[in-house]
Design a protein that fits this description.
By secondary structure, this protein is mainly beta. The chain is built from 1 helix and 10 strands; from the N terminus they run βαβββββββββ. 7% of the residues lie in helices and 49% in strands. A hairpin with a 4-residue loop joins β3 and β4. The radius of gyration is 16 Å and the shape is globular.
Length: 150
């Protein structure tokens, strides 16, 4: 395993969220680990993040790390093609974006998943946090974005 320090990232600007989005690309999450706490206005995902920042060369073993991706100031949540009916369903996170409203600082955070799944969070302001845990493990599977040949 590598001795790189766990990530601790905060996003309050769209440019900051782009960095978090790159870090969580290809993270996997069980449907049961999507949590909206309406009273606290918090939406969180407990994810298994692929450690792209560690590289994937022949000498380096690919790794995943347990992480928490959280959004505060969430006023509402809408989903498309995402259900918690099967709590063991595995979702693959592709991208996280922020679209500001005409009247800032509010807007919509969109979490895009493989298979056209989408979660839209209406937020009063962009407030995202990514925190890695100390739980890291090697994986033999490196995510591939190559188009499959038929």
């Amino acid at each position: 395993m590598s001795d790189a320090k766990p990530l601790r990232l905060l996003a309050e600007e769209p440019e900051d969220l782009e960095i978090i989005s790159a870090a969580v690309q290809d993270a996997v999450v069980k449907a049961e680990n999507l949590v909206y706490e309406a009273r606290q206005r918090r939406f969180s995902l407990e994810i298994n993040r692929f450690r792209w920042e560690e590289g994937t060369g022949k000498r380096r073993e690919a790794e995943r790390i347990r992480s928490l991706l959280a959004f505060d100031g969430v006023l509402g949540v809408k989903t498309r093609a995402i259900t918690k009916a099967d709590p063991e369903m595995i979702l693959s996170l592709l991208q996280v974006t922020f679209t500001p409203e005409a009247d800032p600082p509010g807007g919509t955070v969109t979490l895009l998943f493989a298979g056209d799944g989408e979660i839209a969070l209406t937020v009063e302001a962009l407030d995202a946090t990514l925190m890695d845990s100390d739980y890291i493990w090697a994986t033999r599977h490196t995510p591939s974005h190559e188009r499959r040949k038929r």
